[in-house]
Design a protein that fits this description.
heterodimer, A: about 325 residues, alpha/beta, six-stranded mixed β-sheet, 13 helices, 14 strands, about 25% strand, B: about 270 residues, mainly alpha, 12 helices
Chain lengths: ~325, ~270
């Protein structure tokens, strides 16, 4: 395997009394998307800013594409592209001017910069808007432009700090698609996110960070199975049936059922897979309640996080996972 | 949106990092474009500048005794010097805004000299300031200001103000970097009020209470105003000054050099800091 894109060992960064990084160890291999997942304040941003040479950790070791980031930050800057939490573009300039500016700062000649900017704008679907001031762009377009600006230097490692925070679902999907296509084209990506579904959608490897340390590391599938139980999830038609369903199906589960009145759902952690599923269906049949949907699925990363840290990821992200839950039920049903 | 098919292979990467000049001019071009394309910046700063000038010329002017010369000739050189502060301090906010909005992070993550990036910014902001000063000077002419010395002296006076602008720009950029956000930067910029008004710019220092005079007499805006005024009037004694023009110019340039010596390293250190 080639040189890891990021090798962090025992990284420590203090801001006053707060240890934003508290002995963080992380090796991100080349050829995959690595998502650093964690709640606000977990240290994700400090970590990615350290990799981008914007923050200098107080201790530990950090190599980016094999280069010592403490000793040779200027060499690291040649191989990275950074798209931060905000679209770092100049609204008074056109999209093209923005990308050309960054290309020139990467050291490209005027001609190279122009040609490369055209390629990037084209590939991110911004050609039509390229000569309009960025001030007229939508939030999603600005983020795509920001991504384009970070790509125009053909970086080996693309660092994305919460790339879709604050975007509407459609813009988020577009940005995800753009990121996936870059990955297919061979750019290594390290991204941070507080959205569990984002990590699930984009990354082959998820590193969960909490309080400045890595608390779990693996493929999304591994993390889900490590957190244990599959769940049976039932969506009833009438909310008044929720209680009776939860009561009568409680016995098939290995933990207490969870009831979500808002979405008419009962979730029951189980062991035993399809046999349990059959039992659940028989029980529901006996109850004669109107069921919209039933499925057996792996736990979401949200549930994984809860198991690993004992506290849920914050509200913003949790509500966000609802869509994924829907998809996963659907998916598992087809599989079953 | 059209389908995205990213192909990094179609990008021809740079063979070597950008040099300092390229970095500086690229960043400078952005400041200039932003200024030119944001008409409200242009209009607001010109209108505010004109308004205060007219107020001093026609409202306060009649009550201020300036001895041998008319108030308008006394005041306009001083007013232009204070414009360095009022116009230049906008740079603090815009530097702070870049920090807040992540633009600075983008620049600092690129393989260019951070010193060059900052120098480009300062030079561009100074050039834009010079434009504003030229507009203010034109308004001064329109309301009756005339330099009494030679054309060469008048041009030297203007050049001197631009030099002060460059020196103060390092201070304003430092303020923006230290403040970190626009509101704090604007708050810190309020200090330009005492600096401007407790000086010889609008009124003769000897009209102030005795305890305030030493402060007013020795602060940089007075020193700079005295230099510019001596050149503009062609004779320091017309402004009630006892020294020679050369003396005032020298002292004011020392102040300017001092500002650069303190604030350029500070700004660079703050900007480079990782």
């Amino acid at each position: 395997m080639s040189t890891p894109i990021v090798e962090a060992r025992g990284l420590v960064k203090r801001f006053g009394k707060v240890r934003a990084l508290d002995g963080l160890d992380l090796v991100a291999e080349s050829g995959q998307v690595v998502a650093v997942l964690g709640p606000n304040g977990a240290g994700k941003t400090t970590f990615v800013r350290s990799v981008a040479t914007l923050v200098r950790p107080d201790g530990g070791e950090l190599r980016v594409a094999g280069v010592d980031a403490f000793r040779h930050p200027e060499q690291v800057r040649r191989v990275i592209g950074l798209a931060g939490q905000y679209a770092a573009v100049e609204p008074a300039m056109t999209g093209r001017e923005n990308v050309v500016m960054v290309a020139r700062l990467y050291g490209q000649t005027r001609r190279q910069a122009k040609a490369n900017a055209a390629v990037v704008l084209d590939q991110l679907g911004l050609t039509e808007a390229a000569d309009r001031p960025v001030g007229t762009y939508s939030g999603g377009m600005r983020r795509r432009l920001d991504l384009g600006a970070s790509l125009v230097g053909a970086p080996r490692v693309l660092l994305l700090d919460e790339p879709t925070t604050g975007l509407d679902p459609r813009s988020r999907n577009e940005l995800w698609e753009a990121i996936r296509s870059m990955v297919r084209a061979g750019t290594d990506v390290l991204l941070t996110t507080q959205y569990l579904d984002e990590a699930d959608q984009l990354a082959q490897r998820v590193v969960i960070v909490d309080q400045g340390r890595v608390i779990a590391d693996g493929t999304p599938g591994e993390l889900k199975s490590r957190a244990g139980r599959d769940v049976v999830e039932i969506r009833v038609h009438r909310p008044e049936d929720l209680t009776v369903v939860a009561e009568s199906l409680g016995r098939i589960g290995v933990e207490a059922p969870r009831v979500d009145a808002g979405t008419h759902r009962v979730t029951i952690p189980v062991s035993g897979g399809r046999a349990v599923m059959a039992e659940a269906i028989r029980a529901l049949d006996a109850l004669a309640v109107d069921v919209d949907d039933i499925g057996l699925r792996r736990p979401t990363l949200d549930e994984v996080f809860l198991t690993l840290t004992g506290s849920p990821i914050d509200g913003d992200a949790a509500s966000d996972t609802d869509d994924t839950t829907d998809q996963s039920i659907h998916h598992e049903q087809i599989a079953a | 949106m059209t389908a995205v098919t990213f192909d990094a292979g179609r990008i021809t990467p740079a063979t070597r990092p950008a040099g300092a000049i390229t970095a500086a001019t690229t960043v400078a071009a952005r400041s200039v474009r932003k200024f030119v394309r944001t008409p409200q910046l242009l209009v607001i700063s010109t209108v505010t500048g004109a308004m205060f000038l007219l107020i001093f010329r026609y409202v306060f002017g009649g009550a201020i005794q300036t001895g041998a010369v008319e108030y308008v000739s006394f005041m306009v050189p001083g007013y232009i010097v204070t414009s360095v502060l009022f116009t230049g301090s906008n740079a603090s906010s815009s530097v702070a805004q870049d920090l807040e909005e992540g633009f600075t992070d983008r620049l600092r993550s690129l393989p260019v000299s951070r010193t060059a990036v900052l120098a480009g910014r300062v030079v561009a902001e100074t050039a834009l300031l010079a434009l504003g000063l030229a507009a203010t000077t034109a308004i001064g002419f329109a309301v009756g200001f005339r330099p009494l010395g030679s054309t060469a002296e008048a041009l030297a006076a203007f050049g001197l103000v631009v030099a002060f602008g460059f020196a103060f720009m390092w201070l304003f950029v430092s303020v923006g970097l230290v403040a970190g956000n626009v509101q704090a930067a604007q708050g810190m910029s309020l200090l330009i009020f005492p600096l401007s008004f407790v000086s010889s710019a609008m009124v003769p220092v000897d009209s102030m209470p005795g305890w305030l005079q030493p402060v007013a007499e020795h602060q940089p805006i007075t020193v700079m105003t005295n230099a510019v005024r001596s050149l503009a009037l062609g004779d320091p004694s017309l402004a009630g000054l006892s020294g020679t023009t050369a003396h005032y110019v020298t002292v004011s340039l020392l102040w300017a050099a001092g500002l650069v010596a303190v604030f350029a390293p500070l700004a660079v250190a703050k900007f480079r800091k990782v």
